[in-house]
TrEMBL record:
PANTHER family recorded: KETIMINE REDUCTASE MU-CRYSTALLIN (PTHR13812)
SUPFAM superfamilies: NAD(P)-binding Rossmann-fold domains
UniProtKB keywords: Lyase
Protein name: Ornithine cyclodeaminase
Pfam annotation, one family: OCD_Mu_crystall
Domain of life (superkingdom): Bacteria
Classification via InterPro entries: NAD(P)-bd_dom_sf (IPR036291), ODC_Mu_crystall (IPR003462), ODC_N (IPR023401)
Enzyme type, top EC level: lyase
GO terms assigned for molecular function: ornithine cyclodeaminase activity
EC number of the protein: 4.3.1.12
């Protein structure tokens, strides 16, 4: 390397650890999927327990033809994180994913990124980890059967998390698309689950203590009707996540005790958009801190009105940063300009021409 080249070569400050999709998958297999979910859930719970420390706001959503593109930011006193994520329900018709994402974690003190990572796989894992973590507080203690209505990309992650965190190994699957049920049944049977394929949503919920609804297209706005939900069941509603997109009949909401991540966002995007703006809900951080009860009795219907919140992504970013430090699961990415003189960015540019 010549002296001039050495002057323009990136310094250590220019590099940001980058986790690709390939390396994320390698990391998950290295840790073990269920261990990964358990550890990720612990990070999420730890951050929920310090909820007041975070800067919080509803995500910034741009509703575009065919879907939505969102930015999800949050920060504590040390770190800032955001996720870029889309939701395009018709994408699978053209071979695209319904949801894709990437995220950044930065130091508050300098604003410098300390991690850039794929979050398509990671979002699926954090969504499932959050669902199962919440179910620890809200589902019946003896729950052993889960109904899965919607067998798309999130289905298997939910099943793995509920087994890892709640011990549920019996599944009842239903989807409007028989091919989706076949896919999920094949994948989950291979993971050791006891799987029953069902011909309707009504059949799927029979005998289930936990009901997970996970559909993508707001064209089908009522996945569960009131008669399908009985006393003592826990509903994990994760498909409703934007204005006009819900999965549950309003009467179910009126019978259930509703738990949410961040009310200001959930009232815009969640199941409770169908209710009065002042309808009472319980914030999950207060449950996890022991400030308010979760499930109170065996007959109570509990509902996790899940829309996904930025603090969960922050927890996932923080977890991945810790796991990849000093390993081959992250590669240095020349991402930040770093001139010898911080005030001479133009000089760095001109010297690079030689």
């Amino acid at each position: 390397m010549t002296a001039d080249a050495a002057k323009t070569a990136p310094s250590d400050l220019a590099y940001v650890p980058f986790v690709s999709v390939e390396n994320m998958m390698r990391l998950v297999h290295h840790v073990g999927i269920e261990t990964f979910l358990e550890e990720l859930a612990s990070h999420i719970e730890a951050d929920f327990k310090r909820w007041p420390e975070f800067d919080k706001s509803p995500r910034v959503a741009s509703h575009v033809p065919g879907g939505v593109i969102e930015l999800m930011p949050t920060a504590d006193n040390a770190l800032y994180g955001f996720k870029y994520v889309n939701g395009h329900p018709k994408n699978t018709r053209t071979g695209h994913q319904t949801v894709t994402a990437f995220g950044v974690l930065s130091e508050v003190a300098t604003g410098y990124p300390v991690l850039l990572t794929e979050m398509t796989v990671l979002t699926a894992l954090r969504t499932a980890a959050t669902s199962a973590l919440v179910a620890r507080h809200l589902a019946p203690k003896d729950a052993s059967v889960m109904a899965m209505i919607g067998c798309g990309a999130q289905c298997e992650f939910q099943a793995m998390a509920f087994r890892a965190l709640c011990g549920i190994n019996r599944l009842r699957l239903y989807d409007l698309d028989p091919k989706a049920v076949e896919k999920a049944s094949r994948n989950l049977t291979a993971q050791g689950f006891e799987v029953t394929r069902c011909g309707s949503g009504q059949e799927a919920v029979e005998g289930a203590q936990v009901i997970t609804t996970c559909t993508a297209d707001k064209q089908y706005a009522t996945i569960l009707t009131d008669n399908m939900v009985g006393a003592g069941q826990h509903i994990n509603a994760i498909g409703g996540d934007c204005p006009g997109k819900t999965e549950l009949h309003r009467d179910i909401l009126l019978r259930a005790e509703i738990f949410v991540e961040y009310p200001e966002q959930t009232r815009i995007e969640g199941e409770i958009q169908a209710l009065d703006p002042d309808h009472p809900v319980t914030e999950l951080w207060q449950v996890m801190r022991g400030e308010t009860p979760g499930r109170r009795d065996a007959k109570q219907i509990t509902l996790f009105d899940s829309v996904g919140f930025a603090i969960e992504d922050f927890s996932a970013l923080r977890y991945v940063r810790d796991k990849v430090q000093g390993t081959s699961f992250a590669e240095p990415l020349d991402m930040l300009a770093d001139p010898d003189d911080p005030r001479d960015l133009f000089g760095m540019l001109t010297r690079s021409a030689g």
